[in-house]
Every structure is written in structure tokens, then in C-alpha cells.
């Protein structure tokens, strides 16, 4: 504090408060720019994910999770799986990638692949309600391992999504002699939790009947 002094007593001047400089922008926006403090609207979520940094911005239980852009291998597997599922899906279903999924009716996550009902998307829906989702797929990345294996499956099960698949494309604990990639398929059980149905390693195939007839072939996904 600066105070003017002299031999004669004088009253201290009030300190001059300098305006604080606004913090420089970072990869994650300050909460103050959001219309609703502490919570993103769907439009703000869209804006966040429209950045040119290639990152993926997801919210789970109010926590913002920022992931780097997927690798080329990750994208290749996701695109191949989308194509194979689309070829097998019935007319009333469609397969999407890079599309937002609401959780608790609020901005949520962006699964790698989703099988959803076609009608709401045709009618103009920009994000997916869990009630329309029949299958969600996560392709595990090093940067999102715990989220893809543990956190997201719990949220998907809580949302009532009937089927969840996890694709492991990097060496993992418990891999054993399985060749990569390995696909784990889960279905909701009577306790509303996911039960492992199949573990399919490269070199093997499994024919599924749910959510529709589909042959799981990990080798075909990774073939370049």
C-alpha cells in the first residue's frame, strides 16, 4: 500500500486497486465464460468440441475430461467397425462416430462408436439420448485407459444402454496369448450392470445375435 506522509499528520489515501489482468486463454475455458456457472449447456459443449486443437471434451459427473486427438490406428479401427456395423444393422438403426451422448440429460461423453435409433437423428437431433442407444463402443487409448475401462462402462450401465463393447488395441494386463486387437462384449444383466459375454481375440470370430446379427472379427478391423 502506498501512503503519502509529511511532517503534519494527514489522512492515509485509500489504496488504488488495479484491475486484475484476465488470465490468458488455456486449453480449457474458464468457468466464467459459460452461461451457467459450473455447468455447460449443450451449445457450449458443442463450441468446446469445435476447437481446432483436435481434442475431445467430455463431462462425467461434472468433471471435465480432455483427451488428445485419437491416433491413426484408433481412427482406422473405429471407422472400420462403423462400416461393418452399418452393413449389418437393421433399417431402423444407424451407426455414428464422434457424436455426443447425454448423461443425466446434460452434456456428457463422445463414444468412439454408437448404434442408435435412426428416427431421432433423421428428425434433427444433434446429440444422442441414452434411450436411443443400443450399443456403445470404446476403443481404449493410453490417455483414456481408466476412463474407457472403468468410468464410462459404469455410466453407460446407469443410463440403461443394453450393450457395451471395449476394443483393446495395445498390450494390456491379462492379455495372455491373445493377439491384438481384442474385443470384449458386454450386456446389461438383471442387476443393471454389464456382464462379460465374449472375449474375442484376433484370429478368432464370434457370431452375435444382439443387438442384431453380427460377426465380431478383430482381425478384419485392424487389417490395413
From TrEMBL:
<feature type="compositionally biased region" description="Basic residues">
    <location>
        <begin position="11"/>
        <end position="23"/>
    </location>
</feature>
<dbReference type="InterPro" id="IPR008538">
    <property type="entry name" value="Uma2"/>
</dbReference>
<keyword id="KW-0540">Nuclease</keyword>
<dbReference type="GO" id="GO:0004519">
    <property type="term" value="F:endonuclease activity"/>
</dbReference>
<protein>
    <submittedName>
        <fullName>Uma2 family endonuclease</fullName>
    </submittedName>
</protein>
<keyword id="KW-0255">Endonuclease</keyword>
<dbReference type="Pfam" id="PF05685">
    <property type="entry name" value="Uma2"/>
</dbReference>
<dbReference type="InterPro" id="IPR011335">
    <property type="entry name" value="Restrct_endonuc-II-like"/>
</dbReference>
<keyword id="KW-0378">Hydrolase</keyword>
<feature type="region of interest" description="Disordered">
    <location>
        <begin position="1"/>
        <end position="27"/>
    </location>
</feature>
<feature type="domain" description="Putative restriction endonuclease">
    <location>
        <begin position="44"/>
        <end position="212"/>
    </location>
</feature>
<dbReference type="InterPro" id="IPR012296">
    <property type="entry name" value="Nuclease_put_TT1808"/>
</dbReference>
Amino acid at each position: 500500500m502506498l501512503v503519502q506522509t509529511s511532517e503534519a499528520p494527514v489522512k492515509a489515501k485509500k489504496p488504488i486497486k488495479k484491475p486484475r489482468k484476465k488470465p490468458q486463454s488455456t486449453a480449457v475455458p474458464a468457468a466464467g465464460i459459460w452461461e451457467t456457472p459450473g455447468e455447460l449447456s449443450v451449445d457450449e459443449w458443442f463450441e468446446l468440441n469445435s476447437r481446432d486443437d483436435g481434442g475431445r471434451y467430455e463431462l462425467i459427473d461434472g468433471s471435465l475430461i480432455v483427451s488428445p486427438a485419437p491416433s491413426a490406428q484408433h481412427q482406422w479401427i473405429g471407422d472400420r467397425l462403423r462400416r461393418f456395423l452399418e452393413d449389418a444393422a437393421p433399417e431402423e438403426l444407424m451407426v455414428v462416430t464422434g457424436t455426443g451422448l447425454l448423461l443425466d440429460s446434460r452434456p456428457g461423453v463422445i463414444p468412439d462408436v454408437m448404434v442408435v435409433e435412426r428416427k431421432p437423428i433423421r428428425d434433427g437431433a444433434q446429440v444422442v439420448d441414452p434411450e436411443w442407444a443400443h450399443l456403445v463402443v470404446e476403443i481404449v487409448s493410453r490417455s483414456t485407459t481408466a476412463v474407457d475401462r472403468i468410468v464410462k462402462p459404469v455410466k453407460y450401465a446407469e443410463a440403461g444402454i443394453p450393450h457395451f463393447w471395449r476394443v483393446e488395441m495395445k498390450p494390456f494386463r491379462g492379455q495372455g496369448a491373445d493377439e491384438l486387437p481384442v474385443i470384449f462384449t458386454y450386456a446389461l444383466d438383471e442387476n443393471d450392470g454389464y456382464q462379460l459375454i465374449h472375449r474375442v481375440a484376433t484370429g478368432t470370430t464370434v457370431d452375435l445375435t444382439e443387438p442384431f446379427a453380427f460377426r465380431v472379427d478383430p482381425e478384419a478391423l485392424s487389417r490395413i
